[in-house]
């Protein structure tokens, strides 16, 4: 109970619960769209999704400052690749929140003379670039883990035993490819924080890809991916050891 109270008392915790609810509504609306007996429920879900989306925009008004501060911290990292990826990700995230704040101001009537579609497109672009840089960081970390793992004598022996015990796989698949995949899965299994962060960013990537028209899916895919990434975000907030740092 204390964990739940502590989680919901955090602004990040509340935002992630609202985000999960928003995408759960979007997924439910897509699944029920052709059910004539559920029209009232679909209408209520659409209203709930709209209200939650508007509420989340209000709660995110201070996130621009947080992203700028995060960018300042990541600029001090000694690893140049991590420094570049995380600083660029945080900078684009700050720009995304600025666009998001402007769109919120327009929706409540504080600003009128702006092109909503243009600002929405810029918001999606910044979000997309932030995710690309975050995924680049994930790939960099995974490659580092695989390199370290490959140098471990105990792991080499373990992998050789795996290849000997699975001759049918070695015959059907290029042995080198099987070894690389085994190394990849073993590295991710040993570092769940990296696996969760990568999965979260991949799921999130479908959202701006769809909005920008780069890879158009449907509302169901977007809702499912958004729900999945939100659940992962909740898990990593509840269990800090599962959160990738820096």
Overview of the molecule:
Helix 2 runs antiparallel to helix 11 (219-238), helix 4 runs antiparallel to helix 5 (80-107) and helix 5 packs antiparallel against helix 6. The protein is built from 11 helices and no strands. The protein is 82% helix and 0% strand. The protein is an all-alpha fold and 246 residues long.
Give the terminus-to-terminus CA distance.
29 Å
Low-confidence stretches: none
The total count of helices amounts to 11
How would the global form be characterised? globular
Structural class by SSE content:
mainly alpha
Topology:
Blueprint (H helix, E strand, L loop, with lengths): L1 H8 L1 H22 L6 H21 L3 H12 L5 H28 L8 H35 L2 H13 L1 H6 L2 H16 L1 H21 L6 H20 L8
Helix pairs in contact: 2-3, 2-11, 4-5, 5-6, 6-9, 6-10, 10-11
């Amino acid at each position: 109970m204390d964990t739940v109270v502590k989680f919901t008392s955090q602004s990040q915790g509340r935002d992630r619960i609202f985000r999960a609810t928003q995408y759960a509504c979007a997924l439910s609306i897509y699944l029920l769209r052709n059910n004539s007996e559920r029209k009232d429920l679909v209408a209520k879900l659409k209203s709930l999704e709209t209200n939650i989306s508007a509420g989340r925009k209000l709660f995110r008004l201070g996130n621009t400052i947080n992203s700028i501060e995060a960018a300042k911290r990541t600029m001090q990292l000694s690893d140049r690749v991590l420094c570049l990826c995380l600083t660029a990700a945080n900078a684009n995230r700050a720009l995304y929140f600025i666009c998001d704040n402007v769109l919120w101001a327009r929706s409540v009537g504080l600003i009128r003379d702006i092109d909503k579609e243009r600002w929405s497109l810029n918001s999606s672009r910044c979000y997309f670039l932030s995710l690309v840089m975050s995924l680049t960081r994930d790939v960099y970390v995974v490659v580092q883990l695989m390199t370290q793992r490959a140098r471990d004598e105990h792991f080499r022996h373990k992998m050789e035993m795996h290849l000997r015990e699975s001759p049918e796989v070695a015959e059907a698949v290029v042995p080198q490819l099987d070894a690389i995949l085994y190394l990849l899965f073993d590295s991710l299994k040993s570092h769940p924080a990296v696996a969760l962060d990568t999965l979260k960013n991949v799921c999130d990537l479908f959202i701006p890809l769809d909005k920008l028209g780069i890879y158009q899916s449907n509302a169901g895919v977007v809702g499912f991916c958004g729900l999945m990434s939100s659940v992962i975000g909740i898990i990593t907030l509840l269990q800090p050891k599962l959160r990738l740092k820096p």
